[in-house]
Amino acid sequence: xxxxxxxxxxxxxxxxxxxxxxxxxxxxxxxxxxxxxxxxxxxxxxxxxxxxxxxxxxxxxxxxxxxxxxxxxxxxxxxxxxxxxxxxxxxxxxxxxxxxxxxxxxxxxxxxxxxxxxxxxxxxxxxxxxxxxxxxxxxxxxxxxxxxxxxxxxxxxxxxxxxxxxxxxxxxxxxxxxxxxxxxxxxxxxxxxxxxxxxxxxxxxxxxxxxxxxxxxxxxxxxxxxxxxxxxxxxxxxxxxxxxxxx
Length: 247
Fold this sequence. Notes:
The chain has helices spanning 6-19, 36-43, 57-64, 78-91, 126-131, 170-175, 178-183, 203-212; strands at 47-51, 70-74, 94-97, 100-101, 106-113, 137-146, 160-164, 186-192, 215-225, 233-242. It is an alpha/beta fold and 247 residues long. It has a domain at 27-101 and 148-242: 3-Layer(aba) Sandwich (Rossmann fold).
């Protein structure tokens, strides 16, 4: 059981009160690395496109970190989407769309895992179930697929950040988002160090792809680690910024 000290309780209480007024408190100065909230604030982002939203975990984390702009989430799993929609409706500045995204519009079969966070259009490798038995595929679900470029028109005049977390299916989504990539100020991708799904790109592939699109890495954060080697990451979140003209 986690013990909360009086000081920690008071800091949490103060942060919650300040957030009612659209304010957030984060540690500054030496010893603190910039995070995604700092990146969004530095670019004055007012729309986050949240691809692979699941039940809204990423969006809720953004709210906890002080982001108050619009969130537009995409989630294809029907049973999961209901939870996401309820979270979005309570928020008031959050859209939820029951869609998968890809390189072309159409239909796709989604492998839905026992724990829905492992679900993917791609087939799993044995490493996925070695990492977690909850990754075991429970069923397949046919889902509607659209190109992100075909949905982007309402956001062309906005300051947009794109996040994609789709269990190895990031590259096809980017292939259907060429216009989006030319407009957004930053992108977060979940990137593999150990491959859990078939036909995924490598970290080096992703760096080259994003470099060709005009982006360079700004931040890296470990996501999951090996069970047998908990100091070694399996996946990382990479935040990419637009390359400066003199770089």
